Amino acid sequence: MTKDLTQLEILTELEPVAEQNLNRHLSMAKDWHPHDYVPWDEGRNFAAMGGVDWEPEQSRLSEVAKAAMITNLLTEDNLPSYHRLIAQNFSQDGAWGSWVGRWTAEENRHGIVMRDYLVVTRGVDPVALEQARMIHMTQGVDAPPDWDGFLVNVAYVTFQELATRVSHRNTGKVCEDPIADRMLQRVAADENLHMIFYRNMCGAALDLVPDQAMMALTRVLTSFVMPGAGMPNWRRNSVLMAKHGIYDLRQHLDEVVAPVLKKWDVFERNDFGPRGEQARDRLAEFMEKLGRDVLKFEEQRDRMLAREAAKGDLQPA
């Protein structure tokens, strides 16, 4: 039975791996500028500057695209909370501190470019958007009481970054605007590189402290929620996004959870002790349940969409 390592010991042991992955990230990350992704010539003044305030008919976005853009942007807006959690549970020294700073600076661009796009194109009500931002950022986000420490947080951000990549990419498609699609492809590419850093660090943690890391991983996946949960209109918007394939249970299982677990060989490893084996068994049971939930969700969604299509056919021309 291996001895558990403290958070400080884990961070110290993994710092060379963090430095290696930071350097890898910096070699692959592309510099880009938010102003290059916004159609500024579509902009005009609002009433306070002698122009015209927002009206619903000014937006070219569907209700689904609006819900997805608002949800994704408000999620990005909560960056100060994420920075606090990462800085507290990683470190602000050495390679860890360099990564935290770089990640925060890169993430900040996402909120900048998305908001500029929505305001310039009048895609959503800017007043309602600002009111929602104030509420969401004032509430902030915090980890559950038993989610302290590096292992739980690095596991969470691995899956969260990949989930965000999927959501941004599909939001770009549903906007039916090549400018929005290009912009969100760029944001999704950042999220993918961030995910790779965290995935590699979590994989290294599994090698270093298999039981501790497996227990943290199971805790995260069996109670996973997206970071935007709790924002204004979260339930309505997340249901719309799931209903229209922007981020749903099938994508969560097939495009996020399963590929990462496979990358780590979670169900093939033989280096777990009793606690790690027990945690893996719990995760296996959860994965089976998630698979059943996916099928149930898809059946319900198909019935709902069929009912809506039938109602549409009955509408007068």
Automatic annotation (TrEMBL):
List the Pfam families: FA_desaturase_2
Cofactor: binding comment: Binds 2 iron ions per subunit.
Name the needed cofactors: Fe cation; Fe(2+)
Which residues are recorded as binding Fe cation 2? 107, 161, 191, 194
Q: Which residues bind Fe cation 1?
A: 76, 107, 110, 191
One of the protein's GO biological processes: fatty acid biosynthetic process
Concerning InterPro entries, the annotation shows:
Fatty_acid_desaturase-2 (IPR005067), Ferritin-like_SF (IPR009078), RNR-like (IPR012348)
Q: Which CDD domains match?
A: Acyl_ACP_Desat (cd01050)
GO CC terms in record: cytosol
Q: Which GO terms describe its molecular function?
A: metal ion binding; stearoyl-[ACP] desaturase activity
The UniProt keyword set, sorted, is: Fatty acid biosynthesis, Fatty acid metabolism, Iron, Lipid biosynthesis, Lipid metabolism, Metal-binding, Oxidoreductase
SUPFAM superfamilies found in the cross-reference section: Ferritin-like
What is known about its subunit structure? Answer: Homodimer.
The similarity annotation says: Belongs to the fatty acid desaturase type 2 family.
The record ties this protein, via PANTHER family, to: ACYL- ACYL-CARRIER-PROTEIN DESATURASE-RELATED (PTHR31155), STEAROYL-[ACYL-CARRIER-PROTEIN] 9-DESATURASE 7, CHLOROPLASTIC (PTHR31155:SF9)
Q: What is this protein called?
A: Acyl-[acyl-carrier-protein] desaturase
Q: What is the protein's species of origin? A: Nocardia amikacinitolerans
